[in-house]
């Protein structure tokens, strides 16, 4: 393991997870591990816990798919926020948008809500911005986008 920040990609679709992993590896700025289920992701989190001096994790950012079998990404987000360090950044990845998903994601203080199909540039910008110390700014931006989306969903229901 190098001194590069550690990112975990969690997606049950192996092709999508591999594609995201390759984009991250191509930057040569980050180490990346991949999980294809919530259970596997929890295993990686447990294995990368830092016990010396303070509670933390070597995994600093998670790219997390929402739609997965057994435990979905939103349930995993809630479990991570409850059981692990609050300083792990999480960017949700989804092909689906609705009010409930936005509500649950933003209540978990996510740093981005990335739509599928994946935009390579958006993924890299998310990584670079997060690791330049702008996590708080990113979380507020997602919350602002959530408020706008809430209005869009409301208008769609009314029409």
Strand content: 15-25%
Q: Biggest sheet, in brief?
A: 5 strands, parallel
> If you compute it from the alpha carbons, what radius of gyration comes out, rounded to the nearest whole angstrom?
15 Å
Structural class: alpha/beta
Q: Supply the number of helical segments.
A: 6
CATH class: Alpha Beta
The CATH topology is: Rossmann fold
What's the arrangement of strands in the largest beta sheet?
2-1-5-6-7
CATH superfamily: Response regulator
Task: Give me the count of strands.
Answer: 7
Helix and strand pattern:
EHEHEEEHEHEHH
- Structurally, the number of domains stands at 1
* Shape estimate: globular
Oligomer: single chain
Q: What features would you describe in this structure?
A:
There is one protein chain. By secondary structure, the protein is of the alpha/beta class. It has one domain: Response regulator (Rossmann fold). It is built from 6 helices and 7 strands, in the order βαβαβββαβαβαα. α4 packs antiparallel against α6. The chain is globular and about 55 Å long.
């Amino acid at each position: 393991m190098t001194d590069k920040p550690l990112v975990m990609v969690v997606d049950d679709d192996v092709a999508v997870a591999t594609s995201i992993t390759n984009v991250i590896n191509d930057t040569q700025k980050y180490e990346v591990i991949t999980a294809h289920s919530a259970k596997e992701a929890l295993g990686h989190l447990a294995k990368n816990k830092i016990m010396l001096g303070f509670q933390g994790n070597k995994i600093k950012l998670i790219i997390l798919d929402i739609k997965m079998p057994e435990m979905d990404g939103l349930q995993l987000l809630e479990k991570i926020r409850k059981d692990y360090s609050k300083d792990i950044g999480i960017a949700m990845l989804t092909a689906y948008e609705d009010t409930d998903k936005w509500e649950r994601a933003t209540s978990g203080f996510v740093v981005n809500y990335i739509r599928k199909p994946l935009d390579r540039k958006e993924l890299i910008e998310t990584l670079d911005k997060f690791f330049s110390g702008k996590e708080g700014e990113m979380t507020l931006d997602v919350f602002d986008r959530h408020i706008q989306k809430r209005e869009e969903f409301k208008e769609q229901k009314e029409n």
